Amino acid sequence: MAKKAWLFGAVALLAALVAAAGVRLTRSVPSPSLTASMVMASRQPSPAQIAWPAVPEAAVSIDGLGQTWTSGSQMPERPMASVTKMMTAYLILRDHPLAAGQDGPALTVSAADEQAYKDGISNGDSGVAIKTGETLTERQALEALMLPSADDIAWVLAEWDAGSRPAFAAKENTVARSLGMDHTNYTDPSGLSPTTVSTAADQLKVVQAAMKNPTFAQIVSMQSATLPVAGTVVNYNRQTGTNGIVGIKTGTTSQAGGCWAFAIKREIGGKARTVYGVVFGAPLSPGNQQAAAAIEDGEDLADAMPKMMSQLTVLPAGTTIGEITVPWSKTQMPVVTSRALSGMAVAGSRITLNTHAQLPGGAGIAQDTEVGQVSANGVTGPAASTPVVTAGPVQKPSLMWKLFG
């Protein structure tokens, strides 16, 4: 013992003398390294298949979860009737934003507008009564557009915004391309023209973008509105406000069939979430006036969404995901998750883990020090990544190791 103590003392004295002389005797200390030992790639249990409606095409998604399901070929493009008016309202609000409680500028009805209304009604088009000299606020015009699906108001808004209906349609196509809608062509702002065509998947992109606008979302959730000349008008979709339905737009023509772009609240993974979807080409009700079958199909799709998603815990808190190794010790220090890694995942999807090390500088690391992150691809939610921490301290190298290794 005396010899060992003398040796350590001598070494320490030598190191001190050398250090005092400005000479580096000890080796540089390398940084610790983290080795991830957990690699996971698995599939969640496969869900029951969606019972798709018997329509040419449909598309559905859950807000915030990044998954879209589609049926049908989504090609060729189909007439979409008054579902077109979603883009019209979205573009008007982009060019002329309305904050909560704002009515916006006044639009004055011209004699040409009134005549267009009369001509449309004589052709069986949808519209609301307007008179020359009448003024509608922007908000009232949007309410008339989206609730009773007024073609005449679509034309008024288009000419107010762009100067003409063709110019407005050109703007709609520009916006469509910016949203990634590669299978859509707008030729009029109302959807009355059968050459205004799209796919359910493309129109779902309009739904997702437009519903981020609070004014748009508020208007399409209304059951009725009051206009200066037309008086009280009601939403063509009388079910709005019931069974979780918060919008958005029906459309019917003989060429398009019954169409519905919808937003419906459902409980998914223990949380109220909005299901967005589009149904194209459902059978029409007698008289070709209502999209009842399309609405029923949309509700069925919304009801199917809870079983398509799973709330799962990928890694419990305290799970070892790797070890820290240092060259001066044979002991490997476990690194563990500081909290559970969990979230929503599409049932049947592939879940993979990514580990990112962020080791602190210096040779020693205290217990419970954050040294990186682990995240799960294919899982969404605030807990889809978690810090990883040391399960114990990583000791500094000894003087003997620094000197002799």
State the major sheet: 7 strands, antiparallel
Q: Taking strands numbered 1, 2, ... along the chain, how are they ordered across the largest sheet?
A: 1-15-16-20-19-18-2
Please identify, by name, the CATH architecture of the largest domain.
3-Layer(aba) Sandwich
The overall pLDDT average reads: 88
Number of helices: 10
Number of domains: 2
Give the C-level CATH assignment of the largest domain.
Alpha Beta
Helix content: 25-40%
Record keyword descriptors for this entry.
single chain; 405 residues; alpha+beta; Beta-lactamase; 7-stranded antiparallel beta sheet; 5-stranded antiparallel beta sheet
Write structural notes for this entry:
- The structure is a single chain.
- Helix content is 28%, strand content 28%.
- A hairpin with a 3-residue loop joins strand 9 and strand 10.
- The protein is built from 10 helices and 20 strands.
- It has 2 domains: 108 residues, no CATH class; 246 residues, DD-peptidase/beta-lactamase superfamily (Beta-lactamase, 3-Layer(aba) Sandwich).
- A 7-stranded antiparallel sheet has the order 1-15-16-20-19-18-2, with no helix packed on it. A 5-stranded antiparallel sheet has the order 4-3-13-12-11.
- The longest helix is centred in the first third of the chain and has 19 residues.
